[in-house]
Structures are given as structure tokens and as C-alpha cells.
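User: I'm putting together a teaching handout on how multi-component assemblies are represented. Below are the sequence lines for each component of a complex, exactly as they appear in our records. Could you produce the 3D structure of the whole assembly as C-alpha cells, so the students can see both representations side by side? Please keep the chain order the same as the input.
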Amino acid sequence: MTAADPIIRLHRVTKYFGDFRALSEVSLDVKAGQKVVILGPSGSGKSTLLRTINRLESINAGTIHIDGRNLYGEGEDINRIRMEVGMVFQNFNLFRHKTVLENLTLAPIKLKKMKREQAETLAMALLDKVGMRDRAAHFPVQLSGGQQQRVAIARALAMEPKIMLFDEPTSALDPEMTSEVLAVMMRLASEGMTMVVVTHEMGFAREVADTVVFMDAGAIVEASSPHRFFTSPENPRTRNFLKQTLVCPTNDSSQPFD
Amino acid sequence: MSEPERTTIEIGDGAAIPRAEDRGLVSAWWLALIGAATLLVVLPWIKPDPYLTILRFVPDGVVITFKVTVLSISLAIFIGLVTGLGRISRNRFINLIASLYVEVVRGIPLLVQLFYIYYALGRLVRVPDLVAAVIAMAFCYGAYMGEVFRAGIQSIDYGQSEAAQSLGFNPRQTMTYVVLPQAWRTILPPVGNEFIALLKDTSLVSILAVSDILRRGREYASESFNYFETYTMIALIYLVITLILSKLISLMEYRLSYYDRR
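Assistant: Of course. Below is the structure of the complete assembly, with chains in the same order as your input.
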């Protein structure tokens, strides 16, 4: 494998839920260090696509390679591959029975056989990075949604993954908490992490993405640079989606509210 | 004609049901405990014959009752864990075996099972009476415990498992480090109830020549003909034990909820 090879390669991935075709022959390459943002209406298959990348969803046809290794290949240990692919969920999913610090150290200690002391040093450095150092001894229920999500990002980073997947990381948050989570993600992006992000945050897509992927009805409709995507989208479905999501009625000065 | 006097009975709506921390319920526990304990002390004091004699005769049985209870519940918890995991297994064969066990055991009265295992086991191997009794109790309670474990495991949000798997934990590690430690808290209250129920049900093993509280009492009563006094003392002993146990279990529940208290 050379440096130019993609770190994530999806080739004609097809996925059914019963009779419903959730993904139809989706192909996508992500290079190391690249930031891909996946947009699309709900039910378009974007979360499903993301979840196939660490095999939380199985696929019916096609192939997925992570760092050159076949996700469905014989003799491949899925748990080894998952250690290199961090994931952040919409509902945080922090381990409720563990403190913030323990949430970060559990996997390194149990899976990488890291010494507790070393794991805790690493965890504290990561908590520092996401601004949660002073909450290390707290339990998840004691934290706000935004704080929980920042801890969840740090927990994924504690395994020192090569790739980070974000599944609508700010969708379950109150608006005033989204920015603290997005700030952490932007910092991570600036440090060169390979990121695949499913989100509704157009601002984040515009600022951070190298590539914006638009999905509809289980297929990739358009994939281009954010500038091109937001200023001159090619596909009519994309244009329609952008028209619906970017219109902001309160900016319409013709409506005399006050 | 004057209006007849009416007694009105107030029917509480759901909101008016007294909660655990309300005074009435707490004092009921204290009242029962103090009442039973006082009788246990006062009766032998004012009427040593037969009460004190009974109180001297029965305690050997208390030890046996506890032995049977603790051994049975430990074995039942182990069987329950295996059964519960079997009931949620994707392996059809394992799932069938576990479900079959639960269905069969739940459909047969405990007393019949005790006789059956005691005599059936006795035909195959010679085991001490106490061991046979423990196996029979655990076999029966393991099935109920299996359902408790299954429900407890299924009560944990699937997102917890997904988070663990995404970090690289295999299914067994996910169960051990993430799901079971959380399920245990859901499981504990019903396990505590099963523990107390099992302690009371061990009185059934007295028919299997195991000298528990009840059997010791019957031995004494059949010699002295003091049936009333004997069974009074036995009831009081059981009551004091179960009251103390139920309090211990609710204290343990509180301690286990540490991570959900803000």
C-alpha cells in the first residue's frame, strides 16, 4: 500500500433492511487525513453508510477496506480493525457505570493491555484537550449533553484511532451546546485526523470538509468540494435539499415581526 | 326521614399511593421487627417452659436453613446467568435448551420438583440429603433467576453495547465489562426478592429429612405436643430473619445506584 491509497475504500456497498434497500451500490474513497462530511435528508442512508464502515451494520453486497484490510475478509479480526476506527454516537453512549476517567481508560487497559498509570496519563491529556479535565471523577449523568459528547470524543481518541466516525454528533444537543462539540471536532480536524462526519451542521461542512457527499435514497448523488457544493450544486436533488435547509425565515426582512 | 349516616371510603388515585420514604411504610417495618423481636425475648422470659426450650432446640435448624438458602441461591444465580444468556443467544440450539428448561420448571410445583429430584437423584447416586435439597432448590430457582437475568440484560440500552463494540470489545468482553455490571443493578431487587422467597421455601426441604428450622420445630412439637407454642416461635424466627434481609437488600440497592445519583 502506498501513501496515496485510500484509508477507507467502499466499493459498491449494498445493504437491505428486509425488503428495503438502504444502500445501493455505494462507492466512496477516503484518503488519510481527509475530512468527509455526509449530508442528506433523513432516511437517505447516511447513518447506515457510516455504520457499515466499522461493521456495526452488516452489508449484503460489495466490499469495504480499511487501511488495506478487508472488513469482511476471512481471518480478519473485526475487533482489531475497530480499535483503529473511533466512533462518536448521536446519544453519546458513555458507559453509565464508569466515571469520565474510567470511560477513557477501560478500552486501553483491557484491549491494549496498557498499564493503568499510563492509560490515566493519556486520558487526562485527552480530557484536557476537550476541556473536561476537571470532570474526570464525575459520572456521565452528572454532565450536560455537550460535556458528555466531548468526553465521548475523548474516549474514542483514547484508543489512538486512525479514523474517526461521527454519527450526527450534535443532533441530540441543545443549540447552545453544539458549538462546544463542533469546536473540539474542528480542532481534531486541524490536527490531521481522518474524519467521516454525518451531520446537519452546514456551517461545519463548509468550514471543515474537504469533500461534501450528498446522499439521497441510499445512493451518493453528488460528491464535491464544499465551495462547489454550496455555490453551484450540479444535481437538482442537491439544489432542492440546499434550498430547503439553508433558507432562514428570520433573515427575511420583508416579514414585519416587530 | 333523616339521612342515614354514611361511611365514605376514600379511594386513592395513583398519585396518592404512599412512597417508600413516607413515614407510614417505614414504621410498619420497625413495628413488625420490634414486635417480633420483643415476643421472641419476652415469651421465653415469662414462660421458659416451653418457649425457652423451643428457642434452645431450634437454632441448629437456623444454621441449616441458612446453609441451604445460601448454597441454593448461589447455584441458582449461576444457573440463572447461564440460562439468561442462553435465552438471548442467537444460537438457536442453545436458545431452545434454555427456553425449554424455563418452561418446564415454571410449570411444575416446587414441592413436586423437590420430591422428584430427591427420589430420582437418590435412585441414581447416593448424595447427602442436604446436597439433594440444594440441587432441587437451585434447579427450580435457576429458571426464575434466568428470566430475571434475561430481563436485566435486555433493559440495558443497546447503545452501550455498540459503544463498546466500536472500541474493539468482542461480544464476551462487552457483556463482562459493560452490560452485566449495569444489568446487575436492575437485577438485584428481583434477586433479593427471590432470595427471601427461597429462604421461606426452604421450609419445604424439611420433608426431605433435612433438619432446617421447621423440621427441628416439628421434631420438638411431636415429642412435647406443644404445637401452638412451637409454630409461634418458628413463625417469629422466620419473620425476624426476612425483615432484616429485606432491609439489607434495600440498602444494597441504594449503594449500587451510586452512578445514577446526581
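A couple of points students might notice: Chain B touches chain A at residues 157, 159-160, 162-170, 173, 177-178, 181-182, 185, 258-260, 262 (CB under 8 Å). The longest helix of chain B spans residues 171-201.
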